[in-house]
Amino acid sequence: MADEDRKSPEEAGFSPEAPFTVQTEGLELTFYADGADRLDALLTMIGQARESIRAYYYIFARDECAASVRDALTEAAQRGVKVTLILDDFGSTADSLFLSPLLEAGGQFRRFSPHWGTRYLIRNHQKMLIADGERALIGGFNIEKAYFDPPEVNGWNDLGVCVKGEAVAHLAAWFDLLNEWTSEQTVNLRRVRQQVRQWQARSGQARWLVGGPSRRLSPWAESVIKDIERACQLDMIMAYFSPRGGLARRLGRVATRGKANFVLAGKSDNAATIGASRAHYGRLLKTGADIYEFQPCKLHTKLVVVDDAVYIGSANFDMRSLYINLEIMLRVEDAELADRMRAFIARHEQFSTHVTPQVHRQRLTIWNRLRWTMSWWLVSVVDYTVTRRLNLGL
């Protein structure tokens, strides 16, 4: 075997967990860590829909995987299911020509146009599919082959969650609001801001939280930051991690009160996002936090466990997802679920590089410090699409 083909100890032997189900707060949550399982669950949900399918995706490509989802949606429309598909106009390459079979079968297709706010291009970063208002599949994954590929070919490590229970009806109501915005020729940013602030869906200890453009913190950001401020235990596996400095200090204070673990990306499609994360390592390590960089493949999972609260959905822990883009997150407060998801996160640590203070000091050259600082600025202030081209050699 050539040296370049050899896997490090952290890369070797990793395989995603098999699907597992947790009953909590009147919900049935089934987690899909393996890409093939996620795709099968998605196609099965579409195939079993009887009345309606509501689907929104930030990225919907034009590859064979996207074609299989398109064809399943088309078959659903042909058997009389009301199919509504909304795609983000910035992130998705699928167009009316690619989706023509669905349109000819009677499905509805709309695009959510990005909108320039005061400083940023605001995007709708959500991902969801809702069947019959009873079952929903959420998470970080998009409709593109790479999101379902295995680790051996550097497919995205991601997590999908099938949600069954009363909370799904609230998510369907949120989708209908998105559909209402999208049906208009131009998205009214002022109205979006107002409704992001006002919309809340509560169901016991489980509730949906939305993120979006707001002059104050969005409900998702406000909730997770409030939980972090009083937490004694924090575990996070996160694709893109580049919060503001003040929020990074709050994360570090959790470690001083108890324990804080971060599993972050060691591989990505955008190396600048890794540099942006590393800009915070010194601050976190001084507080006693543990940091791991996941090595087997690209990381796209978005999961936060704060004491007994679990957050899962579309949002990263970066400036865009916390303060700018439209996001959807499910927060469930349940000690048993929190323990199960901590075990899920911990399993990734053995396949990661443990970034100890010594490892960090070895990396901390003047050149790297400059690149990490510039990466944080590019990722947080400029844009991901720019940083993919300006990754500073990381």
Helix-residue proportion: 25-40%
Percent of residues in beta strands?
A: 25-35%
Q: Taking Cα atoms only, what radius of gyration do you get, to the nearest Å?
A: 20 Å
What count of helical segments does DSSP give?
14
> Any idea what the shape is?
globular
What is the number of strand segments?
21
Mean residue pLDDT: 89
Low-confidence stretches: 1-5
What is the terminal separation in angstroms?
A: 26 Å
As an assembly, this protein is: single chain
Q: Report on the biggest sheet.
A: 9 strands, mixed
**Helix vs. strand class:** alpha+beta
Q: What strand line-up does the widest sheet have?
A: 11-12-20-18-17-13-15-16-21
Could you list some keywords that capture this structure?
alpha+beta; eight-stranded mixed β-sheet; single chain; globular; 394 residues; 25% strand; nine-stranded mixed β-sheet
Q: Summed up, what is this model?
A:
Strands 11-12-20-18-17-13-15-16-21 form a nine-stranded mixed β-sheet, sandwiched between helices.
Textual characterization of the structure:
The protein is an alpha+beta fold and 394 residues long. 38% of the residues lie in helices and 25% in strands. The chain has 14 helices and 21 strands. The chain has a 9-stranded mixed sheet, with helices on both faces. It has an 8-stranded mixed sheet with strand order 1-2-10-9-8-3-4-5, sandwiched between helices.
